[in-house]
Design goal:
Layout: H1 2-6, H2 11-54, H3 64-76, E1 86-92, E2 144-154, H4 158-164, E3 169-179
Antiparallel strand pairs: 1-2, 2-3
Helix pairs in contact: 2-3
């Protein structure tokens, strides 16, 4: 029994067995964080390129949304599932109106109930009060257009879920706002 207690021949493998799971979990978390940062950078770049092209009105044979989707696929090398990619294009009259609610005409706090023109000013023309007055379009000449792309990243490491405070899905978002060129 004394020889068994003094024998240290297997200590290294036992120590590795204790430390290895945590080491691999941290390593996979670092790899996933790198993938998230890469995807964020690629989406921001593609959204910026798409918005710069979109403000000229040129779309290369498709819609502005199609062009942005193509740019994201090109910049990420097809790494993302483009069917999960969400693209929203909203137009505004000025930069200061981005994200602002439609104004209430009655002394009530938003949301404004009632009829457009009576209870609230229907800026985007959809007949209902909206918390964001942007119209779902690419706008016309001189309009301010907000391009927003988002992608649901499904986390594969539990440590990243706890660090990011999510339940397994982290939404990566990129936003660009431009003024459309004046058509003369």
């Amino acid at each position: 029994m004394r020889n068994f207690v003094k024998n240290t021949g297997g200590n290294t493998i036992i120590e590795f067995a204790v430390v290895a799971p945590m080491l691999f979990l941290i390593l996979s978390g670092i790899i996933e964080l790198g993938l998230i940062l890469f995807t964020t950078s690629a989406m921001e770049g593609a959204t910026n390129v798409g918005s710069r092209i979109g403000k000229t009105g040129y779309t290369q044979g498709g819609s502005r949304e199609d062009y942005i989707r193509t740019q994201i696929n090109k910049l990420t090398g097809g790494f993302l599932n483009s069917s999960s990619l969400s693209i929203s294009i909203l137009s505004y009259s000025s930069f200061s109106n981005i994200g602002q609610p439609e104004p209430c005409l009655i002394p009530a706090s938003p949301p404004c109930p009632g009829v457009a023109g009576v209870n609230f000013t229907d800026i985007n023309g959809n007949g209902t009060w909206d918390a964001d007055q942007g119209a779902a379009s690419a706008g016309g000449s001189g309009s301010v257009v907000l391009y927003r792309t988002s992608y649901p990243w499904h986390l594969f490491t539990p440590i990243m879920s706890s660090l990011l405070g999510t339940s397994g899905v982290y939404t990566i978002t990129a936003v660009a706002a431009v003024r459309n060129e004046q058509i003369q």
